[in-house]
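[Discussion] Sanity-checking designs against the backbone

I'm trying to build intuition for which residues belong where. Below is a structure token string of 127 positions. I'd appreciate it if someone posts a full sequence so I can compare it with mine line by line.
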């Protein structure tokens, strides 16, 4: 599931396509611009995105959101396109380690993602 989800997000971001997602436990969908997948300072795998509409605890205002990747239950890539915001800062301290920064991905990022998947599968096997 995580591999398929990440591939969908990667392709959508490379094409700068807006996505509609549904998170576990939420009754409304979110419309987002996917920016990247990272490891948080709490060691959770997260999706960094700009949310334009949908479910939010921030009073429905557009803004940056950090969403738990594994909470995404459904994703739909839309035909609308987006631009990366100038104020996005991938060096912000909340991002412990980037696995994939979709805007301008490099090959080393894909290698890091492969290692992430392998380590997660190993952890599942041990538990």
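Best answer:
Here's mine. Compare freely.
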């Amino acid at each position: 599931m995580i591999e398929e989800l990440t591939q969908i997000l990667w392709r959508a971001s490379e094409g700068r396509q807006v996505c509609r997602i549904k998170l576990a436990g939420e009754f409304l969908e979110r419309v987002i611009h996917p920016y990247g997948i990272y490891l948080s300072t709490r060691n959770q795998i997260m999706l960094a995105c700009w949310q334009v509409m949908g479910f939010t605890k921030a009073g429905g205002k557009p803004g940056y959101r950090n969403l738990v990747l594994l909470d995404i239950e459904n994703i739909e890539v839309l035909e609308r396109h987006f631009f990366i915001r100038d104020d996005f800062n991938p060096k912000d301290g909340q991002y412990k380690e980037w696995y994939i920064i979709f805007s301008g991905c490099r090959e080393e990022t894909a290698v890091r993602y492969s290692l992430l998947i392998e380590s997660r599968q190993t952890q599942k096997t041990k538990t």
